[in-house]
Amino acid sequence: SPLWPGLIEAYRHRLPVTDATPVVTLQEGATPLVPARELSRRTGCEVWLKVEGANPTGSFKDRGMTMAISKAVEEGARAVICASTGNTSASAAAYAARAGLICAVLVPQGKIATGKLAQALVHGATLLQVEGNFDDCLALASKLAIDYPVSLVNSVNQFRIEGQKTASFEVVDVLGDAPDVHCLPVGNAGNITAYWQGYREYASDGPASRLPRMWGFQAAGAAPIVRGAVVEQPSTIATAIRIGNPASWSKALSARDDSAGRIDAVTDRAILAAYRLLARTEAVFVEPASAASVAGLLQVAAAGELEPGQRVVCTVTGNGLKDPEWAISGAPAPVTIPVDAAVAAAKLGL
Ligand code: F0G
């Protein structure tokens, strides 16, 4: 079919679905893989951006959510719940609305971007702001899913990982093989787990001849995997990855070690520099957390640890419009003028 049917239909034979699974889709997936000219020039590598902000709700979470919600409906669920730094709740709210399910979301009070809050509300989710961080929200959501008739759709739900692994399939389908290196931001560590699973599946039975090295990057103030210890009070401007005790911690370590990869920390300053570079030179507007993958790549390159000539894919996980404050605060204030061409020309330096 010339129309993209969504990732469950596109990769049905590689996903745990049957004819009995009611497919709940917003035609997620098939996101752009954009050549990054400036990043390639700076690193001497062939750099590509997997632009996951092009998904229906503006983040990679839609890949997992089409699976999680389809399976929840198949299993007869009437309500779903998640903890979220914002994107999971936006995606869960949208797919639950599509499926006619009740959706409850728990978010850390005051620590999620405005656009994401708007998405959960407009799609009709019931949102509770928790006096705690994401880790507290996840513990609470997990407990509620045990004690009450509600299905958990966080990435501890294996169907989420199954859906998210399709991003690796798409990369290989476009490039013809796995890249040398794949860079990702790491928060709860579900996505690096999912990509690694996808690459391994494709390498085990044909489509890919090799495996990439997985490079994950955490924000320096929320880098439990790098430090090897839970961070009780995680802190970063990249609110999407403000997580101190990742649920998929050990799987992220496996992805790193089995791929001869790395998981490093990047400062908020480096994240914002990469965020601006992406917008100005590659013309890709991402949210701050997404820029961690690119900040990390540039950091490794600056340390002389990136061999030139390699093929590198950086996933940029979420759309910049979700969290526009960083775009506005970093720019000069707009100038106001009367309806006057001469004044406009003078202000524009024409
Ligand atoms: N980038 C963005 C934009 C995210 O929203 C997240 C996670 C990540 C990266 C990290 O992915 O958790 O799989 O390692 N956001 C979750 C949420 C926690 O609730 O939306 P991860």
Automatic annotation (TrEMBL):
Cross-link Isoglutamyl lysine isopeptide (Lys-Gln) (interchain with Q-Cter in protein Pup): residue positions: 143
What are the Tryptophan synthase beta chain-like PALP domain coordinates in residue numbering?
A: 24-318
Provide the top EC class. lyase
Q: Does the keyword Amino-acid biosynthesis apply?
A: yes
Q: Which Pfam families match?
A: PALP
For molecular function, the Gene Ontology terms on record are: L-serine ammonia-lyase activity; pyridoxal phosphate binding; threonine deaminase activity; threonine synthase activity
InterPro entries the record matches: Ser/Thr_Dehydratase (IPR050147), Ser/Thr_deHydtase_PyrdxlP-BS (IPR000634), Thr_synthase-like (IPR004450), Thr_Synthase_bac/arc (IPR026260), TrpB-like_PALP (IPR001926), TrpB-like_PALP_sf (IPR036052)
Protein's UniProt keywords contain Transmembrane helix: no
Pathway in which this enzyme or protein is active: Amino-acid biosynthesis; L-threonine biosynthesis; L-threonine from L-aspartate: step 5/5
Which residues are listed for pyridoxal 5'-phosphate binding in this entry? 87, 187-191, 317
Into which family does the record put it? Belongs to the threonine synthase family.
Q: Which UniProt keywords apply?
A: Amino-acid biosynthesis, Lyase, Pyridoxal phosphate, Threonine biosynthesis
Q: Function, please?
A: Catalyzes the gamma-elimination of phosphate from L-phosphohomoserine and the beta-addition of water to produce L-threonine.
Q: What is its EC number?
A: 4.2.3.1
* GO BP field: isoleucine biosynthetic process; L-serine catabolic process; L-threonine catabolic process; threonine biosynthetic process
Supply the name of the protein: Threonine synthase
Name the cofactor(s) required for activity, per the record.
pyridoxal 5'-phosphate
Q: Which residues are recorded as modified (N6-(pyridoxal phosphate)lysine)?
A: 61
- Provide the reaction this enzyme catalyses: O-phospho-L-homoserine + H2O = L-threonine + phosphate
